[in-house]
């Protein structure tokens, strides 16, 4: 199985012809007999390269509007026939079936057609039948056949043809076969997921064709790989490659900032916001976000939802930070931020994100709808006699956005569109509250007139009591505890306003 095998014949049937011509010309130079179909055949003929129509093998025309072209025993026999098996060789001779040593296929662009919002009829016609069958057949018989299953592999094929003068060895063929099954499985997953939008068959199928090996995972002893296309999300203007932990923080930052429309700056550390502020200018937003926790901000991830200008960049440059993200930067701002050589500067593109979350868990995968709920004023249902003021409502909505993006159990304090402090990832809601109070006071914030948000209901009145004694005047929480009345009663007796959203925002 390891000896070199010469490519004497090739079947070529592709959708995209880009960069195919050098391959065609090289095959011709090597004396390879070429078979082809439809538009590919015309493309080859225009290159002045001899080509045989598959009909010359099958003695059967293309039918059903092109749905049936290559599905014929003489085609698949030529691909699947085992060259070293005497019975296969005898049958191929009996039925006048020639060997096909190379198959080049580029499938109909199903995913591309779906993404363009095409009609169902157009989408269905982009489900490739003959092409996918050729890929699987050729890959199965990798002992004898080279399979090129994507236009992205035209270049590697050309290199093989040039370096080995039209020969291939088993390692070449097996490598191309592995790529071919990756192509076919990805293609089928895309088709299944398209149909499953309506059919809801309980099966998990995801396929991503691009990958980036990371320096390591969460810790140096762990390997890490990112599967996805970061170039579609960001333009990187400077800095080193993103690490595993960087990516987790960047993901958290992108999802958080998406909930804000007014000029907002956020600073994140370990997936949690340690500083957030909304202001009339992005510079002031940054300064007030930083004031929320200048200690945690060291080495953090910074994100803005408006252009970072020169004045803002001057302030940001004073802080050691790993990553800066914004939709745009002024020329001067980029120059300033680049002065720190390892700082990663990203331009966030307008790209739609998935509406599902999934992660490995135990011996499987757990999937859920993404938490896309962002409360507005109409969602705030007064639970107390006293209603929040207009300014308190603004702060309650602001705080509730932050609580949604902070690890549970969490408590968030906010005032005048600024994060004052949060208690994050605690096993007790009371502990989260006490942590937030201690943190706010340590940075000199006065909690009088501030609001409090909780990611889940209060099972006891202790949280509203502690918050009230710290200066909190308004509270937002989901509600839904069998003891809601105890917290409501405390608020009513002590002049606090409290609203229910009816929506819990746990983030484990």
Taken from the alpha-carbon principal axes, the silhouette is: elongated
Mean pLDDT: 94
Radius of gyration: 31 Å
Span between N and C termini?
52 Å
CATH class of the largest domain: Alpha Beta
Could you name the CATH topology of the largest domain? Rossmann fold
Query: In which range does the helix fraction lie?
Result: 25-40%
Q: Numbering strands along the chain, what is their spatial order in the largest sheet?
A: 10-15-14-13-11-12
What structural class do helix, strand and pairing data support? Answer: alpha/beta
So, CATH architecture of the largest domain?
3-Layer(aba) Sandwich
- What is the number of helical segments per DSSP (H or I, 4+ residues)? 19
CATH superfamily of the largest domain: Methylglyoxal synthase-like domain
Beta-strand fraction estimate:
15-25%
Task: Describe the model.
This protein has 508 residues and is α/β, with parallel strands linked by helices. The protein folds into three domains: 5-199, 3-Layer(aba) Sandwich (Rossmann fold), CATH 3.40.50; 226-348, Cytidine Deaminase, domain 2 (3-Layer(aba) Sandwich); 377-500, Cytidine Deaminase, domain 2. The strands form six sheets. It has a six-stranded mixed sheet, with helices on both faces. It starts with a strand and ends in an 8-residue tail after the last strand.
